[in-house]
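Lay summary. Proteins are chains of building blocks that fold into shapes, and those shapes determine what they do. In this project we predict the shape from the chain. Here is one chain we studied, written as its sequence of building blocks.
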Amino acid sequence: MGKLDYFYLLAPAWLALELTLWPGFRAGVIAPSAGWVAVFYAMEAGIGAALYFRLRLAAPVALLENAAYLTAAVNYVILAPMHIAGSAGTADLAAAGASYRAALPGILYSAFYCVFRIRRILGGGRAR
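And here is the predicted shape, written in a compact code that computers can read:
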């Protein structure tokens, strides 16, 4: 099991962090509620278990999940400010901006992780 694979084994810690101290930390790009956040981290924990037990389809599933997350993260980073600005007349602009600023570091961290992992899987690089 490579060092990058341990990221998935930390899914329960990421879930606890996101539900208690840092809303929107990682799952904020795709999960609108606590239930969906739990589903997101259950999926990541399942990928972590598959990687730990070296199941044959673990790496392709992790690659697919990384590509989907990276797409959602890029979409969130680029389009969320436009959505916030577009809803300036109907929404609390300060709260929306604060939520975006709070979520951005965790989302960028996860996006960089996804890039390194995809590079390792596709490029055959040694990131262990």
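What the prediction tells us: Residues 84 and 91 are 8 Å apart (CA to CA).
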